[in-house]
Amino acid sequence: MAIRFPSWRTAAAALALLCVCASAPVAQTPQGVFIPGFWDPQRRLERPDTSSLRVIRFVTDDEYPPFGFSGPDGLAGFNIDLARAICEELKVACTIQARRFDTILDAVEGSEADAAIASIANTPATRARVDFTAPYYRTPARFVARADAAMDDPQPETLAGAVVGVVSGTAHAAFLETFFPGVQRRDFDDLPALLAALRAGEVPLAFGDGVTLALWLNGDEGQCCAFRGGAYLDPAFFGPGVGVAVRKDNTALRRALDYALARVAEQGKFTELYLKHFPVGFF
Q1: Which one, out of 105, 109, 141, 192, has a CA that is 20 to 30 A from the CA of 11?
Q2: Quick check: is 179 in a domain?
Q3: Are both 91 and 147 inside the same structural domain?
């Protein structure tokens, strides 16, 4: 079954390496919004031979807004727009079909589709079934606090003794235990309970998945709060990122998709889509 992303040295030295600024290129718009980038701007990819490529049949799901959802004009969302941008760059026809999430990899493996763009986690289990392009986004971990909290940049030394809420049994709880050993961790059974406690002021700070937290902050219930500090991307805890899935050993298509993704980023289209779908960015 596919899993969707929603993500030793001294703590100080390790955090310097794990922070987003050292893990992935990040552009800053004039409005101060940081745009994640996972393509080396100095690398020049050769355009692959796509003469035999007539159409790319994408599958996605429509129950994960803003990545994918059914709108008044059909399928919409970040993943859908990115798939269309890929096909436009490669100058090939593109079909995008929504399927139930737990059947998407079956469709790719069974040649019912050529590629899946559905925020599927790149894990050992999914890599055993499909190949992935380079990541087009990653799910960072972030701190979030009440908007009126006097806290700018949470660090292990500044958070010593502080109460931090986290969902128990998650990679985020394990990350806190490893790199922020001085905090007083308060565990919650699930994310709604954690966010309710943060909103009510029962915990001053929460730590969790940056994508999910960004979507919450963009909603009415999240108006109480704001991100604090930077993003953490350690793949040992939060995975290597989200790529487009293709059939095993379909090297030609994977390379074509990698080329198109890099070109979409280089031309600024990725930035446009990120700003369109994530008013509150997760980086």
Answers
A1: 192
A2: yes
A3: no
Q: CB-based contacts of 207: which residues, under 8 Å, 6+ apart?
A: 141, 142, 143, 144, 164, 165, 166, 172, 175, 176
Is-contact 20 233, C-beta < 8 A?
yes
User: What are the pLDDT digits (tens) for 229-279?
Assistant: 999 999 999 999 999 999 998 999 999 999 999 999 999 999 999 999 999
Instruction: Report yes or no on 93 lying in a domain.
Output: yes
pLDDT, tens only, 26-64:
554 545 567 777 777 677 778 888 888 999 999 999 999
Supply the pTM of this predicted model.
0.86
d(CA 26, CA 246): 27
Tell which residue, 21, 89, 91, 138, has the closest CA to residue 266: 89
Reference 63, options 104, 7, 123, 113; nearest CA is 104
- Which helix (H) or strand (E) segment holds residue 208: the answer is strand 205-209
DSSP string, 163-203: EEEEETTSHHHHHHHHH-TTSEEEEESSHHHHHHHHHTTSS
Look at strands 205-209 and 141-146 and give their pairing: antiparallel
Instruction: Give me the domain span that covers residue 221.
Output: 141-232
Q: Are 277 and 211 in contact (CB under 8 A)?
A: no
- What is the CATH number for 225? 3.40.190.10
- Please report how the helices 269-277 and 251-266 are oriented relative to each other, as an axis angle in degrees rounded to 10: 80
Q: What angle do CA 134, 117, 233 make, to 5 degrees?
A: 45
Please, are residues 60 and 97 in contact by the beta-carbon 8 Å criterion? yes
